[in-house]
Automatic annotation (TrEMBL):
This is Endoglucanase. GO terms for molecular function: cellulase activity. Residues 27-489 form the Glycoside hydrolase family domain. Transmembrane segments: none annotated. The keyword Lyase does not apply. The keyword Iron does not apply. It comes from Litchi chinensis (Lychee). Its EC number is 3.2.1.4. PANTHER family: ENDO-1,4-BETA-GLUCANASE (PTHR22298).
């Protein structure tokens, strides 16, 4: 452990004694790199201040009659999936709102990363009655291994509408715009107001025309980012963020009056279609927003009687994670990494740890502890849990391997990422077609371009890691792994007492 902490638990009380603090990781360096990663995921016309210079302009014709240039590629492919992109944007904005003051000069870069997405979402929601949800045919894209700068696959834009609704992706975009409006409020009031106005319009559309985009766009969004947990959680998530941004009673009433919708899905399917039992209160990620809603509302409505159900479920969420809790719903590797079913496991370690650090602030403000059966948990325990997960990712694990590219001496060299694995245009200006990159994919050589800051899917539950491009479940980075990690690193960079 990097924070050596002794806990004395006696019946009915807990005494926490911080014996000593030893920092073995440079959280500030990791923070800078985690934000830089988003520049490697950029689509569109790159700006003059682009720091990841091996990446070049790409997908400049996206949208046909509608300008849909910009935004992010979600992972190691060249498709723009707006559902996970919006979630990543919401988490980046939440990171700035909670921990921006400790980011130092990196806060500007974090805001740049958010704006790259919100500028795109303003375009994707510019036609009343339509919300664009995706750009690119994932089936043809996943059949190729080529640089985004060389794409010659179909760049079909997909949208939802009144007749073919998509409440989950629309409401998540509304959440992203609302959260981002608050992040920009201190520095750019005009842009902030524009984002908030659009957020209210998109949320109204999502709520008025209810339905999942699985129904109309299933052949293209599934199995990649199919909605497995229903769209009701995104509607509450969007309303909660709009309440925080506007303080309008309408949004608070919406959340309170629809809280029962969060319990509709007591059995959640993961992205591989495997079912497992677990209350929805324990879920959080690009698909399920349940735990995030409870933690967010608890933070907004501190000491408010009406926040009771949300606090109870947030407490249950905490108890679902801790290794010694009698109601634990997750597994752990021998080295201590949290595991949930499904691919890209580090998305769970980063997102759930982020919620714990945010919730620890609620516990501090309300002077509360959590009871997980006979186990008494205070806020220091939540922070220590999150720090252990962060340190594992940065290299404090049985392999002594950092799972962030470019951080530490030992990190993944053969990540599942097209742009990183193929030579840059600077080195190989000639076009590389769909199958032209296959030899690079199959090569055992390290990727020629360093996707600095990228956090990959991570090791298996036995703490093993193959460092193979073909093993995409473990070697592929994603924006929704990095986004909550930004907030975590900003918090631990501060070196403040818990």
């Amino acid at each position: 452990m990097n924070l050596v902490q002794s806990l004395l638990i006696l019946p009915g009380m807990m005494v926490s004694m911080v014996v000593g603090v030893v920092y073995s990781h440079d959280y500030g360096d990791a923070l800078s790199k985690s934000i830089l990663f988003f520049e490697g995921q950029r689509s569109g016309k790159l700006p003059p201040n682009q720091r990841m210079t091996w990446r070049k302009d790409s997908a400049l014709q996206d949208g046909l009659q509608v300008d849909l240039t910009g935004g992010y590629y979600d992972a190691g492919d060249n498709v723009k999936f707006n559902f996970p992109m919006a979630f990543s944007t919401t988490m980046l904005a939440w990171s700035v709102l909670e921990f921006g003051k400790t980011m130092g000069s990196d806060q500007k870069h974090a805001l740049d990363a958010i704006r790259w997405a919100t500028d795109y979402f303003l375009k994707a929601t510019s036609i009343p009655g339509y919300v664009f949800t995706q750009v690119g045919d994932p089936h043809s894209d996943h059949n190729c291994w080529e640089r985004p700068e060389d794409m010659d696959t179909n760049r079909t834009p997909y949208s939802v509408s009144k007749q073919f609704p998509g409440s989950e992706v629309s409401a998540e975009i509304a959440a992203a715009l609302a959260a981002s409006s608050m992040a920009f409020r201190p520095s750019d009031a005009g842009y902030s107001a524009r984002l908030l106005k659009r957020a209210t319009m998109v949320f109204e559309f999502a709520d008025k025309y209810k339905g999942s985009y699985n129904g109309s766009l299933g052949p293209w969004v599934c199995p990649f980012y199919c909605d497995f947990s229903g769209y009701e959680d995104e509607l509450l998530w969007g309303a909660a963020w709009l309440f925080r941004a506007t303080k309008a009673t309408y949004y608070w009433n919406y959340v309170v009056n629809n809280i029962h919708d969060l319990e509709k899905y007591s059995i959640i399917k993961n992205v591989n279609g495997v079912s497992y039992t677990g209350g929805s209160f324990a879920e959080f990620g690009w698909d399920s927003k349940h735990a995030g809603i409870n933690v967010l509302v608890s933070r907004i409505m501190e000491n408010s009687p009406s926040s009771g159900p949300f606090v109870q479920n947030a407490d249950k969420f905490v108890c679902s994670l801790l290794p010694d809790s009698p109601t634990k719903l997750v597994s752990y590797s021998p080295g201590g990494l949290l595991f949930k079913l499904g691919g890209s496991n580090l998305q769970h370690a980063t997102a759930l740890s982020f919620l714990l650090v945010v919730y620890s602030r609620y516990l501090k403000q309300t002077d509360r502890v959590i009871h997980c059966g006979d186990v008494i948990v205070n806020r220091y325990r939540l922070i220590q849990f999150a720090r252990d997960q962060v340190d594992y990712i940065l290299g404090s694990n049985p392999l002594n391997m950092s799972y962030m590219v470019g951080y530490g001496k030992n990190f993944p060299k053969r990540i599942h990422h097209r742009a990183s694995s193929l030579p840059s245009i600077d080195k190989h200006p000639r076009h590389i077609d769909c199958k032209g990159g296959s030899s690079y994919f199959e090569s055992n050589n390290p990727n020629p371009n360093l996707l600095t800051g990228a956090v990959v899917g991570g090791p298996d539950i036995k703490d093993s890691y193959a460092d193979s491009r073909a093993d995409f479940v473990h070697s592929e980075p994603t924006t929704y792994i990095n986004a909550p990690f930004v907030g975590l690193l900003a918090y631990f960079k501060s070196n403040a007492s818990p």
